[in-house]
Amino acid sequence: MKRRIGFYEKYIKRGLDIALSLLALAAFGWLFALIALLVRINMGSPVIFRQPRPGIIDPETGRETIFDMYKFRTMTDARDKDGRLLPDSQRLPKFGRMLRASSLDELPEFINILKGDMSFIGPRPQLVRDMVFMSDRVRMRHTARPGLTGLAQVNGRNAITWEQKFEWDLKYISDVSLAKDTKIALLTFKKVFGRGKSSAETEVTDDYGDALLKAGKVSREEYEALQAKALRILEARK
């Protein structure tokens, strides 16, 4: 799975990510500590939520690398009477919603950027159980390092359909440039510190596979088989 990679993406973008992530970690260290304390008080531990996400495709294997993405915890561990976790929407308290709406929950991803798992700008890393439902065309989004923010995030985030998200991602990778990254960064800044996000943009939405199943675009058998494939991918990391 290959695409044309320009000079900026190949030689400059990673250097900017390293410099900016170091600057951000130094400048916002106090904010990290404050939010960590508030998360501990409001939701307990662990303060940092770690979740496997698909990263950039390894050119040798042709498969996505899987990395642990870091975020501040926004959900509780509330369970039903049988000990099963409640749906995501029922485990997202007011404080967690505030963290998501302000994007403060994503500050630990600066560590992912510094490590090279992510970039500041790029297609947003989805879940492994989303990845297995993607077509080869959509998986082209994984030929770029996933981003803290991207075109889909400044054009609706969770308020748009999965198909629209993927089209924005594919549009981004078709021409990665400093000018485009700068524009996305400014639009993200405006969303976070300006008028902010709409409530629809921060709502918990269906996983991609669940959305396809509900729409009748995959059968129950296909759905179960692909979910099992995702579990095998995750088990292989242990």
Order of helices and strands: HHEEHHEHHEHHHHH
Largest sheet: 2 strands, antiparallel
Q: Which structural category do the helix and sheet elements fall into?
A: mainly alpha
Mean pLDDT: 91
Q: What is the molecular shape?
A: globular
Number of domains: 1
What fraction of the residues are assigned to beta strands by DSSP?
5-15%
Count of runs of 4 or more consecutive helical residues: 11
The beta-strand count equals 4
Please bin the fraction of helical residues. Answer: 40-55%
Return Rg in Å.
Answer: 18 Å
**End-to-end CA span:** 26 Å
Low-confidence region ranges = none
Widest β-sheet, arrangement of strands: 1-2
Give a short summary of the structure.
The chain is mostly helical. It has one domain (7-236). It has helices at residues 7-27, 29-43, 94-102, 109-115, 128-131, 136-139, 151-154, 162-173, 178-193, 208-214, 220-236; strands at residues 48-57, 64-72, 119-121, 147-149.
